[in-house]
Write a structure and sequence with these properties.
Two copies of one chain form a homodimer.
Chain A (H helix, E strand, L loop, with lengths): L5 H8 L3 H8 L7 H14 L5 H8 L4 E6 L7 H14 L3 E6 L6 H9 L5 E5 L5 H9 L3 E5 L9 E5 L1 H14 L5 E5 L5 H16 L6 E4 L4 H13 L6 E4 L2 H14 L9 E6 L12 E4 L2 H13 L8 E4 L2 E3 L13
Parallel strand pairs in A: 1-2, 1-3, 3-4, 4-5, 5-11, 6-7, 6-8, 8-9, 9-10
Antiparallel strand pairs in A: 10-12
The structure holds a DNA duplex (30 and 30 nucleotides).
Pfam families (chains A, B): LacI, Peripla_BP_3
GO molecular function (chains A, B): DNA-binding transcription factor activity; transcription cis-regulatory region binding
Protein name (chains A, B): LacI family DNA-binding transcriptional regulator
Chain lengths: ~325, ~325
DNA sequence: TGAAGTTGAGCATACGTATGCACTATGATG
DNA sequence: CATCATAGTGCATACGTATGCTCAACTTCA
């Protein structure tokens, strides 16, 4: 069966194709009566506009590209969910690519650009300066989600990583912890650096330094091993700050099931993100909640705000969710 | 900056646009020499083919639509990951929509079809007969993932739900359990019905019947409550089969943290899916693993196999992962 | 030497829509 | 009554690519 086009509708009503196009766009030049007839005919014939043809003509696809580098992290399903829904509400579509292990954003971005997406969101990954320039030349907006660039040459939306990490450190110290350790993600990422730096900075303010620091690679298994390494060290930590919840869960399981330790009696563990399992009784993880909804909204605003220039680095505040995995006393006024 | 088109390349080399098009498609009619010059010029100018224009011409977008109804279920990130990667390898793109709560597939599908996707995959949801016919008319292939229709009017890829559930029941019974209960997802879904039916059937074969059956709505929280209801019943179960892992985790947390029961000593709990947390020590969940990779491959095969007609219902075998949440004795030969 | 075949390329058009411009009624204005 | 604005519609073209057909130049073979 042949697809029905605006030409078919035009023929059915006895008007020109341009009149159909205008009628369906509710152009003021077309009379009420004609519009009515055209809408009726379009419905009867089951006409659906061809967005591909429209895109070619208008030079605008209403598609947004999303490149996810860490889709298996339980933090992202909620992001994806909100993103697709908000876009759908705006009448836009989402084109998704998950970057395979061992590949870079640069490897998958070009194939997305061939589809002329109006904008690109990149989560958990950064952009080579080459691609950044290329995007800039073709005037395709980009927003980094949960990552930032130090030179502010690209839009980014992040949580206030530094501030939140400082708060975590302060609360732990004020509650009597003295042997603090950290499990990082990947040292080449901005989230890692910012959370790490904030935490360590606050320690120094109190005359302390890290008794251990390990890399968990942002995975459950990586953090499981990292925690075990930490506990083999000379100075055993009495608190571990994991810069992502998946890793906190791994660390928690490691010290509990492998070493038979009690949490939070023997050791406090704090995470970052507030993924769903964090609030389950089996973990009851104290963590920093990232305001996903706000972050997604800001991301899309940056993407579509026509006069967003120069690029902005948006930061939204996180919120410490105090649960049972860390021995914390009441907050002290500062 | 103006986008560079095949016309620009043609002008640069001094040939016609059609020659450029053919050269880049490696058409045999174009001489090696001309091809070389064209490729060079294309690279120099930074030419990227416009897939939108190409799609309009060829009536083929190389885009696949994915409609996910249950994206927050931890089972799906892995599906999504494999799907985008396999598609990318095939030179195709993924257009994603997550169905918001309270909406139907029918509400979001049309907007996807306007983009002329070559095929549609629907997870955790079904298709109205109206939409089924509409898709059939425009010759757009559909595959249901993890759901099936009883009349086989649409392609589907599922796990062998019945067989796996029978095995779960048999193993539980052979291990001495006599008071079996089940927590279902949503009664209107095929996965619910098949798993429920297989489980109950095997019970009857052994002269048993369910001591309880509750609905968990495929969510952690729903199953948490469902488990508590089950334990308030007249005949307390000594084993609960949850037809999805998220629910098994909720049930587990409910009986352990709320009721202080020991698993598997006081009660056995079995899930379905084998999501990542299932294998974490905190849960150590005995469950049926769905072979995601195979399921995704079969889905894409069905989608692109030109002579896949009539629609098929593909079933792939699940695998019982024996862990610590159920008291199981060694399997008995049958 | 002439006919047929082969190679390499261009011309023209199509895909489905949007839109600038021209055109025709119709009524308003002086 | 001539002029002009206005409303309503059609014509023609453009977007960037693919492709059927035509054509010229050259090679091959009898």
């Amino acid at each position: 069966m042949k697809r029905v086009t605006s030409v078919d509708v035009a023929r059915a009503v006895g008007v020109s194709q341009s009149t159909v196009s205008r009628a369906l766009a509710d152009d003021s030049r077309i009379s009420k009566e004609t519009k009515r007839k055209i809408q009726k005919a379009a419905a009867d014939l089951g006409y659906t506009p061809n967005e591909i043809a429209r895109s070619l003509q208008t030079n605008k696809t209403n598609m947004v590209g999303l490149i996810m580098a860490d889709i298996l992290n339980p933090f992202y399903p909620a992001v994806l969910d909100l993103m697709t829904q908000q876009l759908h509400q705006m009448g836009k579509q989402l084109m998704l690519i998950s970057v395979p292990a061992g590949f870079e954003v640069d490897d998958v971005l070009p194939s997305m650009l061939q589809y002329q997406v109006d904008g690109v969101v990149i989560t958990s990954a950064v952009l080579s300066s080459h691609m950044r320039d290329l995007l800039q030349n073709r005037r395709t907006r980009v927003v980094l989600f949960n990552r930032s660039l130090e030179d502010f040459s690209v839009n980014s939306v992040c949580c206030e990583n530094r501030a939140a990490s400082i708060e975590v450190a302060r609360r732990l110290i004020n509650s009597g912890h003295r042997r603090l350790a950290i499990i990082g993600g990947r040292p080449d990422t901005s989230t890692h650096r910012e959370r790490y730096a904030g935490f360590e900075e606050e320690l120094r303010l109190h005359g302390l330094e890290l008794v251990g620091d390990e890399i968990g690679g942002n995975t459950y298994d990586g953090a499981y091993e990292a925690a075990l390494r930490l506990m083999k060290g000379r100075r055993k930590p009495d608190a571990i700050f994991c810069i992502a919840d998946v890793m906190a869960l791994g660390a928690l399981d490691a010290v509990r099931s492998k070493l038979g330790m009690k949490v939070p009696d023997d050791i406090s563990i704090v995470g970052f993100d507030d993924i769903p399992p964090a609030s389950w009784p089996a973990y009851d993880l104290t963590t920093v909640r990232q305001p996903i909804r706000a972050m997604v909204s800001r991301t899309l605003s940056l993407l579509f705000d026509p006069d967003n220039f120069p690029p902005m680095a948006v930061q939204v505040p996180g919120k410490l969710m105090v649960r049972g995995s860390a021995r914390l006393s009441a907050p002290v006024a500062t």
